[in-house]
Design a protein that fits this description.
Rossmann fold, 11 helices, 17 strands, binds NADP nicotinamide-adenine-dinucleotide phosphate, binds zinc ion, oxidoreductase, zinc ion binding, GroES-like_sf
Length: about 350
């Protein structure tokens, strides 16, 4: 066991504070790595503020983790000391259920994936995330970061990247497809870049036109304010696919009407409270509403390789760990362009 510095939440209302945590001894199948960067995902905030219930304090958040391998177990075959690696939202799963066998470990139901934090590992110990100096993870749940991706920009891809890549692939975003992205935040801005790289025509639906210049620079062909009622009149029936990345409740009926016949709106944002959908909004136009959870290990590697090949990287603001609480406030105020990434060197 080793002791490492970290930042933890101790209750839903207190700011995160410095602490120390232990990491397990490197087992035969484990990879130990120094964490260089950790992204701040809105899910970290939902979790530590108790909005999803069930947080087990103290919680060290962080599931967008990038770093460099410092030790490997005796049976490890895929990684060596010095490799650039990452870890996303989960660090283990049963490996036996149909989903695990199909490489969709995020949908493991036996009893479920082991989250990178706020979960319990196979050793019975609580898992703690990336706002820390180092971590030990089974090699099967570690990703390789391609040389073309700097570690700070690779970090957000481990959640924001795969969460948007997976549904874009699943619902065939590509040439000739009209894709809308609701919310230009951490997930949303990566979704725009990925969908553009896949060849789709992309529209951003944001609360205002404040970030329009950025959205168009990222490759969107159209950018509309959802505060303007004309947006919903003019874009009616326009889209094959809508990705909703908003962390708060929306009036989904208005957005469903923007879908073409057989179009799909995919929920990626997970707000605290349920959202109601009138049946008619689905029935007319045979529209679908779906959800999607991050992505499996193989698809996450595919996404990283795709980003390296197509030069897709997030726009980030690198911060020191003592700025985490202000960063949380800024994320909540939609004042993020477009992902905060913690330089964890003070924690090593
Ligand atoms: P984020 O950076 O805060 O982005 C969310 C964006 O939503 C904001 O930038 C803002 O964009 C828009 N928004 C915020 N409040 C709004 C409101 N009241 N009304 C309308 N629009 C609003 O968050 P994120 O890290 O991208 O995460 C987004 C959501 O996805 C969170 O709920 C998170 O938990 C969830 N998530 C899900 C998965 C999954 O596997 N499904 C994975 C990761 C995260 P504009 O300013 O452009 O309007
Ligand atoms: Zn996340
Ligand atoms: Zn499983």
């Amino acid at each position: 066991m080793t002791t490492v510095s970290a930042y933890a939440a101790t209750s839903p209302t207190e700011p995160l504070t410095p602490t120390t945590i232990t990491r397990r001894a490197v087992g035969p199948h484990d990879v130990a790595f120094d964490i260089h960067f950790a992204g701040i995902c809105h899910s970290d905030i939902h979790t530590v503020r108790g909005e999803w219930g069930g947080a087990k304090y103290p919680v060290v958040p962080g599931h967008e983790i990038a770093g460099v391998v410092t030790a490997v177990g005796s049976e490890v075959t895929r990684y060596a000391v010095g490799d650039r690696v990452g870890v996303g939202c989960f660090v283990d799963s049963c490996r036996e259920c149909p989903q695990c066998r199909a490489g969709e470990e995020q949908y493991c139901d036996n009893p479920g994936m082991v989250g990178t934090y706020n979960s319990v590992g196979r050793d019975g110990e609580p898992t703690q995330g990336g706002y820390s100096g180092a971590i030990v993870v089974d090699e099967n749940y570690v990703l390789r970061i391609p040389d073309a991706l700097p570690l700070d920009k690779a970090a957000p891809l481990l959640c924001a990247g795969i969460t948007t890549y997976s549904p874009l692939r699943h619902w065939d975003a590509g040439p000739g497809k009209h894709v809308a992205v609701i919310g230009l935040g951490g997930l949303g801005h990566v979704a725009v870049k990925l969908a553009v790289a896949m060849g789709a025509e992309v529209t951003v639906l944001s609360q205002s036109l404040k970030k329009m210049e950025d959205g168009l620079r990222l490759g969107a062909g159209d950018y509309r304010a959802t505060s303007d009622p004309d947006t919903f009149k003019e874009l009616r029936g326009r889209f094959d696919l809508i990705l909703n990345t908003v962390s708060a409740n929306l009036d989904l009926e208005r957005y469903l009407k923007l879908l073409k016949l057989d179009g799909t709106l995919v929920e990626l944002g997970m707000p605290e409270h349920p959202m109601s959908v009138p049946a008619g909004a689905l029935i007319f136009g045979r529209r679908r509403i779906a959800g999607s959870l991050i992505g499996g290990i193989a698809e996450t590697q595919e996404m990283l390789d795709f980003c390296a090949e197509h030069d897709v990287t997030p726009e980030i603001e690198v911060i020191t760990p003592d700025y985490i609480n202000e960063a949380y406030d800024r994320v909540l105020a939609s004042d993020v362009r477009y992902r905060f990434v913690i330089d964890t060197s003070p924690l090593r």
